[in-house]
């Protein structure tokens, strides 16, 4: 039996979601158990280097987007993906500069952004993050959305410098202002503003072109995601380059579209809750059909995303 183009496309997208979900899940557990990260085959993963502004780059591989500031003062990294990719990431950075990696800032605690911490920490890189990132990495966590227990991270992977509100780096001719946003994707999210370069790295408070994962078991919330988007929009201009936690290099206009999607989904979900519609009936009604083709083709399926939003707004366990 030959499959038509729609059926083939559906099967391909289903496989893609499975692979991406597996990678995210392994990234989460890799925080405290690097052997699990080894189960994912990263041998074919290539690190793509995307110039963003003078001395600023975005590295794309498997997991969260990496930000790099390179210059005479050395390398400042934002996030580090998975442990098995560390050498490939270091090689990509070596193509940019021969200066050493001095600082690594984690935008939050998830393993697809912190999986390389132990490798870099053992190499002498100073790891920096919000207080809650070290707190969560220091003890066992339970990821409700994935029904997975995350072991505590090894000492070398933990941030050695933490902050509770803001911190500023002065490197490579850049003022790198880092600030904590109220619980959004998690309760330890940080956004970075490279002021002179007019570049913002949002971490996972912004998923470009896809439904975001909101980790409510780590303090995240829909309203927090919207508040974080508003903070970034207040900083961004029409020329600002935005490095999202996931997705392609972005800008203010695209972030506004993302915010509108979140508002629409929130409002539709709240309206259903107010009417007494059950979660099952709500999902069955396909309330985001107009968004799903664009936003629901990644690891966070429409059903999974709506379940998280519904439970958050209804405050269900």
UniProtKB/TrEMBL annotation:
GO CC list: periplasmic space
Record key words, sorted: Antibiotic resistance, Hydrolase, Metal-binding, Periplasm, Signal, Zinc
EC number: 3.5.2.6
Subcellular location(s) of the protein: Periplasm
Cofactor: Zn(2+)
InterPro entries given in the database record: Beta-lactamase_class-B_CS, Metallo-B-lactamas, NDM-1-like, RibonucZ/Hydroxyglut_hydro
Domain Metallo-beta-lactamase residues, every copy: 63-246
CDD domains (UniProt xref): metallo-hydrolase-like_MBL-fold
UniProt cross-references to Gene3D superfamilies, sorted A to Z: Ribonuclease Z/Hydroxyacylglutathione hydrolase-like
GO process terms (BP): antibiotic catabolic process; response to antibiotic
Keyword RNA-binding applies: no
Stored Pfam families: Lactamase_B (PF00753)
Reactions accelerated catalytically: a beta-lactam + H2O = a substituted beta-amino acid
GO molecular function, one term: beta-lactamase activity
Entry's family note: Belongs to the metallo-beta-lactamase superfamily. Class-B beta-lactamase family.
Oligomer status and interactors: Monomer.
Protein name in UniProt: beta-lactamase
Source species of the chain: Acaryochloris thomasi RCC1774
Source organism phylogeny: Bacteria, Bacillati, Cyanobacteriota, Cyanophyceae, Acaryochloridales
Primary gene name: cphA_1
């Amino acid at each position: 039996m030959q499959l038509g183009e729609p059926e083939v496309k559906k099967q391909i997208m289903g496989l893609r979601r499975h692979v991406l979900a597996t990678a995210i899940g392994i990234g989460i557990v890799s925080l405290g158990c690097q052997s699990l990260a080894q189960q994912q085959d990263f041998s074919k993963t290539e690190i793509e280097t995307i110039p963003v502004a003078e001395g600023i780059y975005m590295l794309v591989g498997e997991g969260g987007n990496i930000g790099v500031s390179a210059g005479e003062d050395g390398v400042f990294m934002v996030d580090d993906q998975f442990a098995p990719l560390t050498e490939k990431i270091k090689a990509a950075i070596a193509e940019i500069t021969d200066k050493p990696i001095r600082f690594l800032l984690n935008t939050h605690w998830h393993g697809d952004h912190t999986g390389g911490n132990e490798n870099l920490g053992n190499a002498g890189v100073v790891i920096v993050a919000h207080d809650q990132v070290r707190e969560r990495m220091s003890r066992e966590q339970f990821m409700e959305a994935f029904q997975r227990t995350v072991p505590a991270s090894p000492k070398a992977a933990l941030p050695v410098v933490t902050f509770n509100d803001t911190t500023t780096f002065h490197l490579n001719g850049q003022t790198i202002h880092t600030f904590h946003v109220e619980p959004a994707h998690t309760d330890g999210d940080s956004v970075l503003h490279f002021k002179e370069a007019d570049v913002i790295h949002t971490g996972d408070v912004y998923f470009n072109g896809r439904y975001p994962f909101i980790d409510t078991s780590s303090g995240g919330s829909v309203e927090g995601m919207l508040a974080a988007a508003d903070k970034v929009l207040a900083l961004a201009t029409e020329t600002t380059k935005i490095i999202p936690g996931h997705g392609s290099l972005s800008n203010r206009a695209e972030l506004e579209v993302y915010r509108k999607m979140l508002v629409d989904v929130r409002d539709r979900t709240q309206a259903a809750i107010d009417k007494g519609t059950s979660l099952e009936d709500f999902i069955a009604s396909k309330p985001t059909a107009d968004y799903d083709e664009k936003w629901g083709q990644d690891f966070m399926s429409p059903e999974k995303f709506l379940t998280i939003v519904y439970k958050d707004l209804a405050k269900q366990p």
